[in-house]
Amino acid sequence: MITAPRSLRTHIGLFGRRNVGKSSVLNALTRQEVAIVSATPGTTTDPVEKPMEFLPLGPVLFVDTAGMDDEGALGEQRIAKTRKALERTDLALLVAEAPSWGPFEEELLAEIRARSTPVVVVLNKADAGPVDAVLSARLAGLGIPAVPTVATSGAGILELRQALLAAAPADLLEGRRIVSDLVSPGDAVVLVTPIDAEAPKGRIILPQVQALRDLLDSGVISVVVREHELRAALALLREPPRLVVTDSQAFRQVADETPRGVLLTSFSILFARFQGDLVEMVRGTAGIDRLKAGDRILVAEACTHHPVGEDIGRVKIPRWLRAHTGVPLEFETVQGRDFPDDLSRYALVVHCGSCMGNRREMLSRLLRARQADVPMTNYGLTIARSLGILDRALEPFPNALRAFRESRAEAPLPTEVTT
Predict the structure, then answer these.
(1) All residues at 6 or more sequence positions from 49 whose CB lies less than 8 Å from its CB, including other chains
(2) Over the stretch 87-122, which tens digit does the pLDDT of each residue have?
(3) Which of 41, 171, 340, 414 could form a disulfide bond with 18, CB atoms 3.0-4.6 angstroms apart?
């Protein structure tokens, strides 16, 4: 758990005005001097992250943020970074001074709730004045726990830990699975993993590692091959595998060589489900078939890798989409947390699997795309759609396959491109 990647950790963010004690609350919760504490307003400038094990929630990432009442040009930039942190927050702590709750806190609470993010209110510095009983009762009526604390002395911190655990969504406690829920112990699964030029030397890329570990933990027999070894591997197996999972860049070849009756999908599609909303992204693929000449497409990557050669987001996906649509298209690429606030100038968003992001951040981006009425899909779905094999790639996911077929019924699709 200590070495769990940040993308699989529950993100717990601390938000509020400057100097309400956010950093002190973080230090008290972690029992460590993680963040600098000072009476000077604006001491915390960039989000401070602390990974730790927080039982029974498991691996978490605490994120301490700059005050959202910061001032000046730099203050506006700090507030923008804080709002970016809010997008990836699974569980929010709204920290306020107990005697000083006001309109600012009400607006911040409304913003957090608008994102459907679970929230716990921390009424810190409770020794400076009485806690408003009416406020506590009103928050309780909304299902929001309000915990009085004195972070510098540790008072109320145990109650705050308990409130955090009680407020955590059930799926964070129960955990989610990448692929093992699609098969049973003892089944055979073939993982097709081309050696990516952008993968670190001596390793394979993160989605492949995580899928393999998920299968091994679940007692599934896993066979790992490169794309040109698939045919030989299938011949060596006494019975066909239950599932074949491929890197999306090899989709066409793997689809041709995988027998009908064997379920087929890609790592990227698995991560569309694991890190986001697969059905929503499948519906977003309908935007591919509405593209017109000159439309601008945003290609978003959660990581900040250095692109080389035939980069999938910058070279291959644009090439496949231009071939599929038969029209000239414009592409813009962003990386890491540089996701645009205004999506209105794009006709389509194509996102990576987000193995380096987290699910809350992906869901926040999906929500923003929906609010802007811009379809959003992901790499694997886009590639499968462009190659005319999306229906087959969705066979392991009945709800997503149904959504795809419904979208085809609503709008006739152009001739499939299979080259």
Answers:
(1) 6, 61, 62, 63, 64
(2) 889 899 999 998 889 899 999 999 999 888 999 999
(3) 41
Angle CA(12)–CA(123)–CA(153) in degrees, nearest 5?
Answer: 90
Which regions of the chain are under pLDDT 70?
A: 1-8, 34-46, 55-57, 70-75, 170-175, 196-201, 305-309, 409-419
Any idea where the domains of the chain sit in the sequence? 6-174, 191-269, 276-410
CATH number of this structure's domain 6-174, picked from the four choices 3.30.540.10, 3.60.40.10, 3.40.50.2000, 3.40.50.300 = 3.40.50.300
CATH placement of domain 191-269: 3.40.50.11420
The amino acid present at 171, given as its one-letter code, is: D
Tell me whether domains 6-174 and 191-269 share a fold. yes
Q: 63, 90 in Cβ contact below 8 A?
A: no
CB 395, CB 401: distance < 8 Å:
yes
Report the share of the chain in percent with pLDDT over 90: 57
pLDDT digits (tens, 9 = 90+) for 16-65: 998 899 999 999 988 877 655 555 555 555 678 888 877 666 778 899 98
Four-point Cα dihedral 233, 239, 242, 247, nearest 10: 10
pTM of the model: 0.70
Q: What fold characterizes domain 276-410?
A: Rossmann fold (3.40.50)
